[in-house]
Amino acid sequence: MPSPTPQLRDSYPHHLPIATRWMDNDVYGHDNNVVYYSYFDTVINRWLVDEGGLDIGGGDCIGLCVESRCAYLRPLAFPDALEGGLRVVHLGRSSVRYEIAIFAVGNVEAAAQGEFVHVFVDRATRRPAEMPPRIRDALARLMPR
Amino acid sequence: MPSPTPQLRDSYPHHLPIATRWMDNDVYGHDNNVVYYSYFDTVINRWLVDEGGLDIGGGDCIGLCVESRCAYLRPLAFPDALEGGLRVVHLGRSSVRYEIAIFAVGNVEAAAQGEFVHVFVDRATRRPAEMPPRIRDALARLMPR
Amino acid sequence: MPSPTPQLRDSYPHHLPIATRWMDNDVYGHDNNVVYYSYFDTVINRWLVDEGGLDIGGGDCIGLCVESRCAYLRPLAFPDALEGGLRVVHLGRSSVRYEIAIFAVGNVEAAAQGEFVHVFVDRATRRPAEMPPRIRDALARLMPR
Amino acid sequence: MPSPTPQLRDSYPHHLPIATRWMDNDVYGHDNNVVYYSYFDTVINRWLVDEGGLDIGGGDCIGLCVESRCAYLRPLAFPDALEGGLRVVHLGRSSVRYEIAIFAVGNVEAAAQGEFVHVFVDRATRRPAEMPPRIRDALARLMPR
Fold first, then answer.
1. What residue spans of chain C are helical by DSSP H?
2. What is the CATH number of the domain that holds A84?
3. Which of 68-87 (D) contact C at CB < 8 A?
């Protein structure tokens, strides 16, 4: 199983600082594989809230994760300072596919990289719903030109 | 993006009960996407410890995750009782590809299903190492016949 | 700082099995101190849901934690099988003080023991509210006689 | 049960920024009670590593938590930016009692406040050990004058 080629920092239009926590390290001394997905989740939802106006507690339309994946290329560990890179590779009416990468600060090659798919649904019925225009616009700004 | 076909409970040779925790639910009322990977991790490592004799704290050879993925088919939530199904689809000298599925107890169709790849390494050097025979035997028992 | 005296299993009227997870262990090889509170939370809320009819997603009255504490007496670690003991030491109109202890299965002395205070509030206003009779009855059954 | 008086930001000599994560919020829409302890843990260990030279992976002397507590005064939630305040109220030869408080950025009154006790032990024997001078000096700088 050959390792994938690390993605480069510049290929992501948005970056968010990520602070590691003591608990992120597992018994082998590095960030547990599970924790990377909490970074993914945070990078994405911060964009949706800050730029797309997502109202976590009361909005009619919410994003549910239907698929995620991650390739782990080099170990990271508390107390490293990290950055998450975010881009959008497919944008539909009710769904979006993100690519995310995690970088050690100062390193241009990703330490981990993955994908995450959100389907937007009506909060009450949980059926797919067209995403609000402000969210769609915010996501469109993360697409490659 | 069409949903994948749910895997069936019988197609996994090993099952482990999983108890949900209050914290597993996120603000949308269901198991957070991240938490499924902690189920995966636990199902796999319990097998390695119980059947393969993995010594988490002192063994020379440890398994590091290099890749994982999950497709989320139906919501689960605390306080549901769950089960994890485990099988091995590729077994090399120093690496193994698992397939895992999460079931609500009493349901034969997976609520979530995914993959996880371990590379076994020397604990000190962190370079790939042949897995111990007892671990390899335990993993071989999870392969389809 | 002298260690507290371990509480005994029999002094808790209710016990819930707790399965450890791989991620519970931290870099020093044992359950991280934080994780015990997720056990507390789970033991308590399972009782509220199962016996008190707490409706996490839709009930008018919800319990918010205003105080918690834990004393750690002996290490626990994945893949240990654990049990949580639960009792109620103060029961008011809108608040309850629980005592919880965590036991390694087969051990009558607590490995960790602590307290947790819930204030019940109206879900919408988040102001203190009298707890529903069914919840109060369920909690009263956990008081010492 | 009267609420405790909120501690003030100025009464802590050290502050660390804390970034919330999506997963920190529970089903009731705010930071879960458990998560505050991961903030505590992180504020403390960052000080031990950065100022005390604690070597998480290889040092002879490590700090184990024997007691912790938290009072929750006002809700916090992702995506809030937070700060942790840290002070030392008792410093022994092998143990230290910290007080920690969590602040919403821009707010001088604590949203949560608590305590945490570390006992330093020999990594191999796990028996109490005198803390290294550099750690002791770093902790002494956090005591009130």
1. 33-50, 133-140
2. 3.10.129.10
3. 68-72, 75
Which of A22, A25, A76, A105 is the best residue to mutate to test the D interface, defined by the most D CB atoms within 10 Å of its own CB?
A: A22
**CB–CB contact A64 B34 (8 Å):** no
* Residue where the block lists tokens 């991280």: C32
Q: Total domain count for chain D?
A: 1
- How is residue B108 annotated by DSSP? S
**Residue D119: Cβ-neighbour burial (10 angstroms; 0-12, 13-18, 19+):** buried
Q: Could you give the ipTM of this predicted complex? A: 0.96
Give the global pTM: 0.97
* Predicted pLDDT of residue D32: 97
> D145 lies in a domain?
no
Q: Which of C23, C36, C78 to mutate to test the interface with A (most CBs of A within 10 A)?
A: C23
Give tens-digit pLDDT for D102-140: 999 999 999 999 999 999 999 999 999 999 999 999 999
Query: Using only C-alpha atoms, what is the Rg of chain A?
Result: 16
Domain that holds residue C90: 9-140
Q: Which chains touch C (3 or more CB pairs under 8 A)?
A: A, B, D
Q: How far is A76 from chain B (nearest CA, A)?
A: 13
Which helix (H) or strand (E) element contains residue B49? helix B33-50
